[in-house]
């Protein structure tokens, strides 16, 4: 079945020029990032989608495959302020958000002044986020959802654009604190970093001996905000949005659900899952040169948008069934036409 095209998708010269500028900016940014990062195409594209939407991404992979380097490369290519927070068990919430300090004034009485923490940047690298205590992890919740930080009775607005890119190591889990479901749900995408192939590893070694290229700034925060506005305004047919919603409902362990879901899913995605499919799919559509959201765009972002929103049963772990297995099976089974 061909994708339904909403009438609003008929765009004038200005809209077409904006879409072309969008694709050109994405290509330029990813080219600069690729100068510092070998391979990891899916992860690079996922981070790009998250940054365009002002969303947050959870990056997972074994040590030494470029998670931290990728974040630095994006910050350089975008020319935006960035901070790195190394999460450790003794890190306190105030170490992230900032605190109020008493400052002596030579010409007046001492005053209480808010001293901003490293969270006040446009791109935040939360390195090994699962090594911090739940209390410290929860300090990110308000920032990730509302874009603000509340200290005492005062609320401070974070800069825009604002995105958190958090990394976690899937091995060496001793002494870590798994992220609670409420915090996982605030990540727009969860991206896996693959171990490099022989050719990619050779290229990494060669770049190490020859010197690493520093990405040049090819965009800025204002351009990123404009790109996000364009993606959010992309037309989407009701049938495609309905398909995204039905895909999320199909992952709920309800009577009548697929046997794979009933047997292995304890809790399915929240409504944020459907929102992620629509938003991330709209960016994928623009990058692909489409002027409306399509079924293929929804399917293209289904894994990173939904894999971290499934809570699996013990039987799933025992039988080696992963969230990716379930999402792939369900997405293929959901018909494009509503029954």
What does this structure look like?
This protein is an alpha/beta fold. It is built from 16 helices and 11 strands. It has helices spanning 13-34, 41-52, 67-78, 93-97, 134-137, 141-146, 181-184, 198-210, 221-232, 238-249, 259-264, 271-288, 295-300, 302-306, 314-318, 323-333, and strands spanning 57-60, 82-86, 98-105, 108-116, 123-127, 148-151, 154-157, 163-168, 189-192, 265-267, 311-312. The strands form 4 sheets. Strands 2-5-8-1-9 form a 5-stranded parallel sheet. It has a two-stranded antiparallel sheet with strand order 3-4. A hairpin with a 2-residue loop joins strand 6 and strand 7. Helix 10 (238-249) packs across helix 12 (271-288). The longest helix has 22 residues, at 13-34. The chain is globular and about 75 Å long.
Short description:
The chain is built from 16 helices and 11 strands. It has 339 residues and is α/β, with parallel strands linked by helices.
Through-space gap between termini: 14 Å
What is the overall number of helices?
16
Strand percentage: 15-25%
Overall average residue pLDDT: 87
Radius of gyration (CA) equals 21 Å
Structural class estimated from helices and strands: alpha/beta
Helix percentage: 40-55%
**pLDDT under 50 segments (min length 5)?**
none
Order of helices and strands: HHEHEHEEEHHEEEHEHHHHEHHHEHH
Q: What summary fits the major beta sheet?
A: 5 strands, parallel
Principal-axis shape equals globular
Q: Got a strand count?
A: 11
- The strand line-up of the biggest sheet is 2-5-8-1-9
Keywords, separated by commas or semicolons:
alpha/beta; 5-stranded parallel beta sheet; 339 residues; two-stranded antiparallel ribbon; globular; 11 strands
């Amino acid at each position: 079945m061909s994708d339904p095209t909403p009438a609003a998708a008929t765009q004038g010269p200005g809209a077409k020029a904006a879409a072309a500028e969008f694709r050109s900016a994405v290509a330029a940014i990813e080219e600069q990032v690729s100068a510092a990062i070998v391979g990891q195409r899916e992860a690079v594209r996922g981070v790009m989608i998250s940054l365009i939407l002002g969303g947050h991404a959870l990056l997972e992979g074994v040590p030494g495959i470029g998670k931290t380097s990728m974040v630095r490369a994006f910050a350089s290519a975008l020319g935006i302020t960035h901070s790195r927070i190394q999460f450790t068990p003794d890190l306190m919430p105030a170490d992230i958000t900032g605190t109020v300090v008493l400052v002596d004034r030579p010409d007046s009485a001492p005053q209480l002044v808010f001293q901003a923490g490293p969270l006040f940047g446009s791109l935040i690298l939360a390195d090994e986020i699962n090594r911090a205590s739940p209390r410290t992890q929860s300090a990110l919740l308000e920032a990730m959802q509302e874009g603000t930080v509340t200290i005492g009775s005062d609320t401070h607005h974070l800069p825009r654009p604002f995105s958190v890119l958090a990394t976690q190591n899937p091995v060496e889990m001793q002494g870590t604190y798994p992220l609670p479901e409420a915090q996982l749900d605030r990540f727009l995408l969860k991206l896996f970093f693959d171990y490099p192939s022989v050719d990619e590893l050779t290229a990494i070694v060669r770049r190490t001996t020859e010197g690493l290229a520093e990405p040049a700034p090819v965009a800025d925060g204002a351009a990123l905000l404009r790109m996000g506005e364009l993606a959010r305004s992309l037309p989407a047919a009701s049938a495609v949005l309905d398909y995204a919603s039905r895909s999320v409902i199909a992952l709920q362990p309800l009577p009548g659900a697929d046997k794979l879901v009933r047997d292995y899913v304890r809790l399915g995605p929240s409504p944020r899952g459907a929102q992620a499919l629509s938003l991330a799919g709209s960016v994928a559509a623009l990058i692909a040169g489409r002027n409306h959201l399509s079924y293929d765009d929804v399917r293209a972002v289904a894994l990173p948008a939904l894999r971290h929103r499934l809570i699996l049963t013990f039987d799933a772990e025992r039988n080696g069934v992963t969230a990716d297995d379930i999402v792939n099976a369900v997405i293929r089974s959901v018909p494009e036409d509503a029954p």
